[in-house]
Write a structure and sequence with these properties.
Helix content: 25-40%
CATH topology: Ribosomal Protein S5, domain 2
Number of domains: 1
Distance between the termini: 22 Å
Order of helices and strands: HEEEHEH
Largest sheet: 4 strands, mixed
Length: 113
């Protein structure tokens, strides 16, 4: 996801859940023929530009594994909390898994991973 309108739509219209390292917003849009899309928000509170980009790359790598299991047309926004900068990859993976599974369960989707 790259457009501001899509980020706003997902954050305002979707469900939200959070963990210590991440917060997720998921908007299910049934009837859309396009694939699921993921966007990342890593604010300056996380760290310098180098740290923020590293966190974004790590999250993108993890989220790639969930694209096939998200319902078509859905929008997922993953917001990194400041503690994500120093977190281990396994901890980021565990939090992302919990966030996505909680969002899907709350909104009636399934996790076919």
């Amino acid at each position: 996801m790259r457009r501001r309108a899509e980020f706003s739509e997902a954050v305002r219209g979707g469900g939200r859940t959070g963990r210590a390292l991440l917060t997720g917003h998921l908007l299910l849009r049934p009837g859309q023929d396009e694939p699921a899309r993921v966007g990342f928000v890593v604010s300056r509170a996380v760290g310098t530009a180098v740290v923020r980009n590293r966190v974004r790359r790590r999250l993108r790598h993890l989220a790639r594994g969930y694209l096939g299991s998200l319902p078509g047309g859905s929008l997922l926004v993953v917001r990194a909390n400041p503690r994500a900068a120093t977190a281990r990859q396994a901890d980021l993976a565990a939090d992302l898994d919990l966030v996505i599974s909680t969002l899907l369960r709350r909104q009636g989707g399934t996790l076919g991973r």
